[in-house]
Amino acid sequence: MSERMLKPTQWRKASGLPGNAPKDDVGVRARELLSDRDVVTQDSADALLIALAGQRINAET
User: Fold this and answer.
1) Residue 31 to residue 61: CA distance in whole angstroms
2) For residue range 4-17, what is the model confidence (pLDDT) as tens digits?
3) pLDDT for 23-52, tens place per residue?
């Protein structure tokens, strides 16, 4: 099984997260988590997206 490999900047753009806005806490957190990685696998990107979406939902309620 081959995993699709994405660079962090490609993942951020593909994720649809509002992380492109510097004031967005979710985007800032995503950048912090991805800054140490050169390549992000699709599985780890999906897991991160799910975790960040959960944090955002909790913050909004």
Assistant:
1) 23
2) 565 666 655 655 55
3) 456 666 666 776 666 566 667 777 777 887
Residue where the block lists tokens 């799910």: 50
Residue pLDDT, tens place only, 22-31: 445 666 666 6
Domain extent at residue 53:
5-60
Query: Whole-prediction pTM value?
Result: 0.33
Helix, strand, or coil here: 8? helix
3-state secondary structure 15-61: HCCHHHCCCCHHHHHHHHHHCCCCCEEHHHHHHHHHHHHHHHHHHHC
- Looking at the structure of the chain, the number of domains it has is 1
